[in-house]
Structures are given as C-alpha cells and as structure tokens.
C-alpha cells in the first residue's frame, strides 16, 4: 500500500523521487518548499485567469498497466473552463475516434494537464483525476465556445489534486499568430494615422497659402 501523502507535492515526489533528489543534491531545497506549504491544491484566481486564457493544453493519461499517452486539445481562449476551485472542464470535440484518453480514464482516472505559455515562457503542471461525461447536453452547451466550428462529442471534467509552476528556463519564446496579426494591424492603423496627419500638415491651410 502506498503511503498516505503528507504534502501536496507527494503526488509527484514519491519515495523513489525523493531518494534521487537526495542523491543528486536537491532534496534539502524541496524539503524546505514542503515545510513552507508545498504546492497549491485549489485553483486560485490567478491560476483561473491563466487556465481560461489558454488556447492549447496537453492531457496525459495512462492505461491500467501503465502505458502513458499524451493528447493535445485546443480551442479559442475560454475553451478550458474553471467550474470551481477544484474542477476544470472542457468539451471533447469529435476527432479521429481512437478514444485512447477515454479508454485510459475508464481504467485509471489519474491524469495530468500541462499548460505552456510560449509568449511569456511559463508552464503550469496540474495533477489530478479526470472523467468523461457523455450525453449531458446541458453541460456541453455550457462549456462549448460560442461560434467555434467543431462538433462536440462529450465533456472531460478534471479534478485538481495539486499544481506547480515551472521556471521559464529553456522554453522557446513564440508568439501566437493571432497576436502577431493584431500587432501588425495595430501598427498599420498607426502608420495610416501618421501619414494622414503628415498629409494635412504638408498641404497647408485650406484654400491655399495665406496672404
């Protein structure tokens, strides 16, 4: 029987992990982190804003015999919805119909969400459990992004056990195409305004040159 977790971070820091940390010299620092409160277990307002701003997420699951699987899910900002301080929900759109994630969750409810913000070089790791909800049309309507062109099939509800924010080291900085388009459009609008202003200044007063 596994030991009852003492700290929220024990969801990831197993005895074996802690032994490796001790051997490689990082255990003392993580022990201080644990004593200071360990990882968060509830979704804070700041985390909620970050989750609901995402347009992309990776969900990791494993089968009953431990075979891991990672699946990407995406949509417009807000497709990930925080339902309460422990629950994240999103609509699962119809896709290639392999159903590996759903099959894994029916055998093993443990799951992981990995969120990465390339623009700000930030990543968030969320441990928990998940389940698939089929046939709840009210829930689908509640979570389906307005106007998004995808066929909803079911809903995934993720219950948070613990979460942690990683350092930005080695995350390449990339900018969303939509953000680039908006920045370029804003620049072009400003250029047009300045050109119009220059045109007015160089044209002189209405009716020609003053006597």
Helix and strand topology:
Layout: H1 15-24, H2 27-35, H3 45-53, E1 56-62, E2 68-74, E3 81-84, E4 87-93, H4 100-107, E5 110-117, E6 122-133, H5 137-143, E7 152-166, H6 177-203
Antiparallel strand pairs: 1-2, 1-5, 3-4, 4-7, 5-6, 6-7
Q: Could you say which structural class the secondary elements and strand pairing correspond to?
A: alpha+beta
> CATH top level of the largest domain?
Mainly Beta
By CATH, the superfamily of the largest domain comes out as Electron Transport, Fmn-binding Protein, Chain A
* Mean pLDDT across all amino acids: 90
Explain the overall architecture.
The protein has about 210 residues and is of the alpha+beta class. The chain has 2 domains: about 1-40, no CATH class; about 40-165, Roll (Pnp Oxidase, Chain A). Helix content is about 35%, strand content about 30%. The chain contains 6 helices and 7 strands; from the N terminus they run H-H-H-E-E-E-E-H-E-E-H-E-H. The protein has helices spanning about 15-25, 25-35, 45-55, 100-105, 135-145, 175-205, and strands at about 55-60, 70-75, 80-85, 85-95, 110-115, 120-135, 150-165. It has a 7-stranded antiparallel sheet with strand order 2-1-5-6-7-4-3. Strand 3 and strand 4 (about 85-95) form a beta hairpin. The longest helix is centred in the C-terminal third of the chain and has 27 residues, at about 175-205. It is extended. The model has no long low-confidence stretch (mean pLDDT about 90).
